[in-house]
Specification:
Helicase, Ruva Protein, domain 3, Rossmann fold, 3 domains, Arc Repressor Mutant, subunit A, 3-stranded antiparallel β-sheet, alpha/beta
Length: 496
């Protein structure tokens, strides 16, 4: 801890040479020790280590902290949309604000521990007058998406014939080497996303770097003891569908941490609210009932257990995020068309989130047969069915034919009448008048949700109707401009 306190006192604005750096008491420290020391400080002070990550407080984050304390390279294993890359990026906050390096070095040489030929020769030439530059922690994060076309030259380096020609050097001279991304990430965090997509022979080239910290380029007798914190991300699906992580490489990764999706709707809502990219005019002019937010998240929960959706592929958290953006845009478009300054999200606005859902889920064969749009609508209905008992009495599948239910009067109203329509482009006043025209509907809201806010009433009434449709007590039919709600038997007879 003494070394860390000494380093934090360094005045990087006034230190420009190696001699000044030595006088300030600087000591060499590896990036793993740097991460560890700063994490220890944060834990002791009770500070948040990975801010903006929800749902991992008692699972993934403690595992990350243990891996950092153990000075391990890390592999984050999980399905898409589980914040793996974000976790890696947040590790930057555990680095010191600035570190010194030999000015002009391609690989961030430490002034007291240079590893490149350029830095060693400069120190021999200028000694304590060697110029020192400072590197901010935001510039110490490197990221590479693993694709099948990545080469050893991309990651590690290769001989540069143009450099050899310009400097008039022999190919036997190591100064003709052009360093790849990994050497240039010396003293930095280096993330390789989707590691299994990297060809096996490329993964093999990482062995020595992880174990010994050195590299080999085109047979040069060159040893660079690199100081890098590696973080890998991988999707379990990749192990079978595209590639795999070679066993010796897995053996060299200290900690493999499993990520997961949110376990609760409240956690999922926090993630969506934080990540959704909304226009300030949308948030100011559009009111979103809490039930609408719950319903939006429940769609993803239903998708993750649906028989039509490929569970191995997962349902990304981005599904809810983009769906929420579409939901508000649907309400905004309706308000703009009617000339209204403000509006409230309706359940029928959820038709606008269908494109966000169909683009994010992978269907199995049965789902493909149903069609992506049909599966998305089914997921919405299942979400309504799941949340329904939290607001209204549960509808039992099997009950005596003469048994009375709280919904008998409402169902009779539809049976005896013509039903009614909710159009997509109706104004808020027309929407409320249509819902208020059903007396039994108003009575059910007063009885079972007497505390509901007035601004949420319309959505809750529509939710009740959709719930009865999902339980086969009413029917709902889509026409060009909206939805028509009728009783089940009347709809059946009209079809005949």
């Amino acid at each position: 801890m003494k070394l860390r306190r000494t380093f934090m006192k360094l005045d990087y604005k006034n230190i420009h040479t190696l001699g000044e750096l030595k006088k300030a008491g600087y000591r060499v420290r590896s990036i793993k020790d740097e991460l560890r020391d700063n994490l220890v400080d944060k834990i002791r002070k009770g500070e948040e280590t990975f801010s903006g990550i929800w749902g991992y407080e008692n699972s993934v984050i403690p595992e990350m902290e243990r891996a950092i304390l153990s000075r391990h390279h890390i592999n984050l294993l999980g399905l898409r949309g589980q914040a793996k890359t974000r976790l890696a990026r947040l590790m930057v906050n555990l680095l010191d604000e600035y570190i010194p390096l030999v000015e002009g070095s391609e690989i961030n040489d430490d002034p007291l521990h240079p590893v490149s030929r350029y830095a060693r020769e400069l120190l021999r030439e200028k000694g304590d007058d060697t110029p020192v530059a400072w590197l901010h922690r935001e510039d110490r994060f490197y990221e590479k998406l693993a694709t099948p076309d990545v080469t050893v030259a991309d990651l590690i380096g290769d001989v540069d014939p143009i450099k050899a020609a310009n400097l008039k050097l022999s190919y036997a001279d190591d100064r003709v080497i052009h360093f790849g991304m990994i050497p240039r990430a010396n003293r930095c965090i280096f993330v390789i996303n989707e590691l299994p997509d990297l060809q096996a022979r490329i993964q093999v080239s990482l062995f020595n770097i992880l174990q010994e910290g050195d590299i080999q380029i085109r047979g040069f007798k060159l040893r660079l003891p690199l100081d890098i914190q590696f973080v890998f991300t991988a999707n379990p699906e990749d192990y079978t569908n595209r590639g795999s992580i070679v066993t010796p490489l897995k053996d060299r990764i200290g900690s493999q941490i499993l990520t997961h999706y949110p376990d609760e709707i409240e956690t999922a809502k926090k993630i969506t609210a934080q990540e959704a990219r909304l226009d300030s005019r949308q948030t100011e002019s559009i009111y979103v009932p809490e039930l609408a937010k719950d319903l939006l998240e429940q769609i993803s929960f239903e998708a993750r257990k649906s028989e039509y959706v490929d569970a191995k592929s997962g349902v990304s958290a981005r599904t809810s995020i983009t769906a929420f953006e579409n939901l508000l845009s649907t309400a905004e478009r309706r308000a703009l068309a009617s000339g209204a300054d403000t509006t409230t999200v309706r359940l029928s606005d959820f038709m606008g989130v269908i494109p966000a859902i169909t683009g994010k889920i992978e269907l199995v064969y049965e789902g493909e047969q149903e069609g992506a749009d049909a599966v998305a609508l089914l997921l919405l209905e299942e979400a309504v069915k799941t949340l329904f008992p939290k607001y209204f009495p549960k509808i039992r599948k099997l009950e005596h034919k003469d048994a009375q239910t709280p919904y008998d009067e409402l169902i009779s109203w539809f049976f005896e009448g013509e039903g009614f329509e909710l159009t997509d482009e109706s104004t808020d006043q027309e929407y409320q008048e249509a819902l208020n025209s059903v007396p039994p509907l108003n009575a059910l809201i007063r009885k079972y949700q007497p505390e509901i806010a007035g601004s949420d009433t319309g959505f809750l009434k529509e939710f009740l109707l959709w719930g009865l449709v999902a339980q086969k007590k009413l029917s709902k039919h889509r026409f060009i401009k909206g939805y028509r709600f009728k009783d089940v038997y009347g709809s059946f007879i009209s079809k005949l």
